Records
---
Amino acid sequence: MSRVKVIKDVTELVPILRAVSTNVKKEVYTDLAEGWQTEDDIEEKYGDEGKKTLKIFDKMDLVETRWQHTGRETQKAYHTYYSDVHIDASVPIKEISDVLFAAMMDEDEFEELEEQILESVKEGDTFANDISKKIGYSGITLEGLVKRSIKLKYKGHRIEEIKEGR
């Protein structure tokens, strides 16, 4: 079945761009597009980076899951959710540059910002507008950073920490 990801909000480009930001991510995505793969299959082929990639794809809603019997046990299997992308967005250059900045930011710089945002959330400062001012980036950049993160998520106008096991 062919499913189309319709992008109307430019920040939704971040997960798509991050899905192919390294060779391992690109190869894992390609494998998942070709068929169902368990976490063990991916870890065996790509190591810890492949396992981490599955978590990223799951958080970004790029994969669907099902339980699959492997002969030894029942494991969660992954498959790409979308086979096509349709982009229907008209945005000012400033906004698209903010989104691309968040998506393509150096990993070390991103992790530093992610930790700043996480600290703010843990301190009770959860409103996106307040956090945006605190870290010195636009709301669009912040939204892109949160969509890139596997530790954070948006809930309305608030940012929340994603707890392990959720």
Note: The radius of gyration is 17 Å.
---
Amino acid sequence: MSTEERSTHQASNNALAKGLPAQAELLPALVARVYAEATPAMRGRLLEQLLKPLGLLSLVAVANGLFAKLTMGEGWALRKISLEDANRVDASDVIALVHHVQQVSVQAVESLSKVITGSPVLASSAAAAMLLAMLATQNRNRAPVLGNDFDPFA
């Protein structure tokens, strides 16, 4: 087992051992495991998808500002993650990012399914299959959004 795989397994196990509801901790742990199994290019795509709904303050607040540093290098609007930058992000950073993104936009986390199914190699992993099943269940169980919370006239 490589150092990165050990780190991912340890971060996943730590997340589950905190005593928080299993579902709330399992999703970030599964995303981190899928991230660890992905190629550097696919890692970048996963991160880019998760970073879409976040503003600058969120980027600075998560993982000691790591994601702000990564996205500011390429320009704020582009939010492209280089292969080197994707490799610098570890499982605990991904877990922290997913926790934050879940609070901001459930749809951003659910949209990971499109990225995962777009890669036959990644989609064939057990962790990805579990994540896709969990995302599908969440989507099915969530009440539909009727209107816009920010627009009182919608």
Note: The chain has one domain: 3-137.
